[in-house]
Amino acid sequence: MSAPLVDTHAHLDDPAFDADRAEVLARAKAAGVRAIVNVGYNPERIRTTLALTEAEPIVYAAVGLHPTEAERLSPDVLAAIREAARHPKVVAIGEIGLDYHHQTASREAQVRAFRAQLDLARELGLPVIIHNRDAHDDVYALLREADAGAIGGVMHAFSGSEAHVEAAVALGFYLSLGGPVTFKNARALQALVPRIPLDRLVIETDAPYLAPHPYRGRRNESAHVRLVAEAVARLAGRSVEEIAHLSTDNAKRLFRLPSPDAPPDHGMG
Ligand SMILES: [Zn+2]
Questions:
Q1: What ranges do the domains of the chain cover?
Q2: What's the rounded Cα separation, in Å, for the pair 260 and 263?
Q3: In the predicted structure, residue 259 carries a pLDDT above the cut 80
Q4: How buried is 30 (Cβ within 10 angstroms: 0-12 exposed, 13-18 middle, 19+ buried)?
């Protein structure tokens, strides 16, 4: 089965892949992955992410400052993100948002960085990739305050309740599912899958993190996005082919990725 897939969130520039990055990318392509959005979440990782996009046609980039590093926000860092976002393979600002689980940055600093980068995304006309960990109320309140529906974006590694599905959809956002939807103890998340409109669903790995069952706890990689598609298909009562095609179409619309008939060096062939 080789229906096309898009991994909408990965960190393949991570040192965890230094020994075998070429093999990881080859396995992704063999599994049908046509595009990967690699997320550069601080100034150093933005550099390694852009270098990867230049070496690998199927890799695109998101650039931003992760909420756990929000204390690093400065005019210089914001200027570096703005400059990086001019790169032709940058398709989003992210990952940005709020993380109340890892307490490495104050809530005030996180809110400041989130607002500043929502403004930047609006200025640049790029969608946002939202990181939300234990911060549902504040994330949705800030998105509404920023009129984020006009910016567009995706809830990365979606978690929450049916009300949060509705809140994201009301904003016109996409919802991205990854490894956790395959976990045996993820019944609440699995029960929400049929509630996600099929034109709002995208899939991801978050590699090297969040490996799906049966690889849970091990290094994740983009080829495993197929396991996410299979789990979503079962839960949504659709075929894997259907989920692959529609999630790929959604990802292309969300990130304005080139269509399959674009020149081969743009990767979506
Ligand atoms: Zn991530």
A1: 5-266
A2: 8
A3: no
A4: exposed
Torsion of CA 147, 46, 81, 110, to 10 degrees: 50
Span 20-74, pLDDT tens digits: 999 999 999 999 999 999 999 999 999 999 999 999 999 999 999 999 999 999 9
Has 83 been labeled as part of a binding site?
no
Cα-to-centroid distance, 10 and ligand 1 (Å):
6
Q: Is 131 annotated as a binding residue?
A: yes
- The answer to whether the CB of 156 falls within 8 A of the CB of 9 is yes
Architecture field, domain 5-266: Alpha-Beta Barrel (3.20)
Mean pLDDT, residues 236-260 taken together? 95
Each residue of 197-214: pLDDT tens digit?
999 999 999 999 999 999
Residue type, 233: A
Q: Ligand 1 mean position to 258 CA, how many Å?
A: 23
Q: How many whole angstroms separate alpha carbon 124 and alpha carbon 130? A: 17
E strands, 100-144, where? Answer: 128-133
Report which of 151, 80, 87 is spatially closest to residue 115, judged by C-alpha positions: 151
